[in-house]
Specification:
about 100 residues, 6 strands, six-stranded antiparallel sheet, about 25% helix
Length: about 100
């Protein structure tokens, strides 16, 4: 792999995009990990911090962590980012709930 290709792959991994269509579909890039999810809430670790997606009848439509892409469908009510310190607390809480 040459220098240019290597820089392109690093840049692609760092970018974070959120695209919502009609509050029904959500495409997110830059996702590092899906920490938890159910039909009302997703907790995603992104390159920009923890992202909470809240809604109704939420379903994971597509998951490709190698590329860092997640697609969610359902009725989306809220998107919010947590500060890193709050994200660790939320991750710990969700881990305890879903064990």
């Amino acid at each position: 792999m040459n220098y240019y290709e290597n820089n392109q792959s690093v840049r692609a991994q760092v970018e974070h995009h959120v695209r919502m269509s009609n509050r029904r579909t959500l495409d997110i890039s830059g996702v590092k990990e899906v920490d938890s999810f159910d039909n009302e809430e997703f907790l995603l670790q992104t390159v920009m911090g923890f992202l909470i997606v809240r809604g109704e009848n939420l379903q994971m439509k597509n998951l490709d962590l190698e590329e860092g892409n997640v697609s969610i469908k359902g009725k989306i009510y809220e998107l919010s980012y947590l500060e890193e310190q709050h994200g660790e607390k939320a991750k710990g809480l969700f881990s305890k709930l879903f064990k």
